[in-house]
Amino acid sequence: MEIRRETAPDASGDAGFTLVELLIVIVVLGLLATVTVFAVRGITDQGQESACAAELRVLVTAQETQMAGGGGYTDEAGLVAAGALSSESTMYEVTVTDGEYSIVPSAASSCTGSAGGSSGGAAEPAAAPAPEPVDPVVIDFGGFVGWEYEPAETADEVVVFGRAEGEADFLAMIAVAPPTSRRVTFLALDQIVDDDDIDTIMSRSRTNGVTDFAIYSADDTSPLADDDGGPAWPDVRTYLANQVTGSEPLHLLGGGATIEQLLLSIG
Fold first, then answer.
1. For site-directed labelling of 94, which of 15, 113, 123, 139 has its Cα 20 to 30 A away?
2. How many alpha carbons fall within 13 Å on the CB side of residue 234?
3. For the segment 43-54, what is each residue's pLDDT rounded down to a tens digit?
4. Nearest partner of 255 among 220, 221, 213, 217, judged by Cα
5. Backbone torsions φ then ψ of 228, nearest 5 degrees
6. Residue 32, H or E segment
7. pLDDT at residue 123, rounded to an integer
8. What is the DSSP track for 241-261?
């Protein structure tokens, strides 16, 4: 009798995962889960930021619409009642004080932006600082006290007569310091007594250049005595007009004509 022995099938092809392989699979799955979570969180954060920005714009637009139509800002309840908002915001708090409104995130909100406005409009720009006063150079001008601009020796000069208007204009001129090739001297009319004083000033030793004379009409209000006892001149201007020559012209200042403009025109 023949006895057969059956051999157990080879189970080598059905071997399971090793412990190391299982650990690798678990780590990979964990990494994929982590990446997915951060990606979703980033999308969520971006969506929240966009929602906050959109809500803030809506509130600002509502306030400005209310200002244009109602003449003033109001709180959220007022905006809803006026039809500027469909409902009160859950992301922001709106407050109005003394004609100004402010929009800030509510306590339960994760928003960070804010806004505000004032019914007074834009702030006025700060006034430019006043120029520092410039002290004129005091000189002896042929026995008369004068103020001088550009004290350096130059070929040409301008001699200016005046009182209050002339003094203010001369001080404004030296504060601006316009470019000029001329020495400018201001003489107060209060120290001019008669026509001999004008003769002394006009004959004063000076350079060989051209001397222009100028007078402020509004300051020239007193008659000028005749040193020889004759009739008084109506004013200094009349006497100067009879004394100056073509090379020494006479300019009238005041009424919008300034010494600065004169210097810019004659150089």
1. 123
2. 5
3. 456 667 777 877
4. 217
5. -90, 5
6. helix 19-70
7. 36
8. HHH--TTS-EEEEBTTB-HHH
Q: Which residues contact 33 (CB under 8 A, 6 or more apart)?
A: none
* Sequential DSSP letters for 57-80: HHHHHHHHHHHHHHSS---HHHHH
61 within 8 A of 55, measured Cβ to Cβ: no
Are 185 and 160 in contact, with CB atoms under 8 Å apart? yes
CA 105 to chain centre: 33
Q: Which residue has the tokens 């959220």?
A: 76
Model-level pTM? 0.50
For residue 89, give every residue at least 6 positions away whose Cβ sits within 8 Å of its Cβ, in sequence order, or none: 55, 58, 59, 76, 106
Low-confidence stretches of the chain (pLDDT < 50) are: 43, 122-126, 128
Q: Rounded distance, CA 97 to CA 75, Å?
A: 10
- Residue 152 is predicted with a pLDDT of 65
Q: How many CB atoms lie within 10 A of CB 94?
A: 25
pLDDT of the residue at 126: 46
In a 13 Å sphere around the CA of 6, the CA atoms on its Cβ side amount to 2
Query: How far is CA 116 from each of CA 12, 79, 102, 157, rounded to the nearest angstrom?
Result: 77, 15, 4, 60
User: In 186-210, which positions are buried (b, 16+ CB within 10 angstroms) versus exposed (e)?
Assistant: bbbbeebeebebbeebbeeebeeee
